[in-house]
Amino acid sequence: MVMATGIVSTTADLLGMRSVAWPLFGINVLAYIILVGLTAMRLMRFRERAAADLRSHSRAPGFLTAVAGTCILGTEFVLLARWPEVAVGLWALGIVLWLGLIYAFFTLMTILPEKPRLDEGMSGAWMLIVVSTQSVAVLGILLAGEPPVPAPAALGFALGLFLLGCMFYILLFSLILYRFLFFPFDPERLAPPYWINMGAVAITTLAGSLLVSRAEAWPFLREVLPFLAGLTLLFWATATWWIPLLLVLGAWRHVRRRIPLRYEAQFWSMVFPLGMYAVATFRLIEALRWPALRPVPVTVGGLALIAWAATSVGFVRRWAGWAATRVPPAA
After folding, report:
1. pLDDT tens sequence across 213-246
2. What is the dihedral of CA 49, 51, 54, 57, to 10 degrees?
3. Fewer CB near the last or first residue (10 Å), C or N of the chain?
4. Count of CB atoms within 10 A of residue 315's CB?
5. Within a 10 A sphere around the Cβ of 249, how many other Cβ atoms?
6. Low-confidence ranges of the chain (pLDDT < 50)
């Protein structure tokens, strides 16, 4: 929810809709605080269930949303609130969370004595490995040069994370495409998190575009600029390729196979990639000076706003219904 709301808020700001961006920013700060509190409560009261989730191939990647949500909220504090001091704190928290969770994830998935088959354990949620890595890179690039963050150090760190995220994406893309093409697919399991396949490559495009735009701040970036620009364009093309395929598969799931289209928490993972693709394309246009692409992020950004509104309505209705079942009848 925080990832989706944060990136849609940034999209609205880039579209010149500040009257929409600011309320979304406020909602996101509140949502982040509530979710941090609920997560802390769960870790204290239900340690065994949380530990079981961390050992699950299908559920463990979800913990990495804590990294991405923290860093995306930090980008809002930089771009909208112009409050880099808060963003620096969120970036530091994001780095700590990323280090702890990414190594815990890979260690536990390696040493588990029993492991599921690829088609049972692999899903689009694994792309959160890429999203979390690139979210730390993106916020670091935006903070480079802000006190007390030296530009060369921050950009060097972000470049390393960007390249690591690229490697993660290439490896995971191969596994997920193998799962798509060589295992039977139950439409019930073709859930919204598969949109993260596109969101991961979109945020990779964003990180690359920001690095290209900041090349003057660090001489080494100028030396590798053609490589960075080409790699960024490669990932943007891959993100663009995903969109029609995901739409067709969604139609197959809901129209052909008649799976009801009703709210579930996972729909936030479909909103986030749409907003991220719009923001990434905006930044790609700036970095590569390619104004002919301007209609693309405007169109997709509008769709992201609509998707956020529809998902929010579903969220409110779900929780209103849940609360109504727990209110005792009047005497």
Report:
1. 999 999 999 999 999 999 999 999 999 999 999 9
2. -60
3. C
4. 16
5. 16
6. 331
Q: How far is CA 250 from CA 14, 195, 245, in A?
A: 28, 10, 9
CB atoms within 10 A of CB 299: 12
Burial tier of 303 (Cβ tally within 10 Å: 0-12, 13-18, 19+): middle
SS3 state at 129: helix
pTM, whole model, 2 decimals? Answer: 0.94
246-278 tens-digit pLDDT: 999 988 888 888 888 788 888 899 999 999 999
Q: Which residue has the tokens 């660090």?
A: 218
Res 331: pLDDT: 45
What is d(CA 133, CA 72) in angstroms, rounded to the nearest whole number? 12
**CA 309 vs CA 8, 21, 23, 161, 316: distances in Å:** 10, 13, 13, 32, 11
Tell me what pLDDT residue 329 has.
58
Whether 134 and 196 have beta carbons less than 8 Å apart is answered as no
For 327, the token pair is 């209110």
DSSP codes joined into one string, 192-241 = GGGGHHHHHHHHHHHHHHHHHHTGGGSHHHHHTHHHHHHHHHHHHHHHHH
Structure confidence at residue 320 (pLDDT)? 82
CB 257 within 8 A of CB 212: no
State the pLDDT at residue 258.
83
Residue 13 has what pLDDT? 96
User: Residue 152 contacts by C-beta under 8 Å, 6 or more apart in sequence?
Assistant: 217, 218
Q: Helix (H, G, I), strand (E, B), or coil: what is residue 76?
A: helix
Other CB atoms within a 10 A radius of the CB of residue 61 amount to: 24
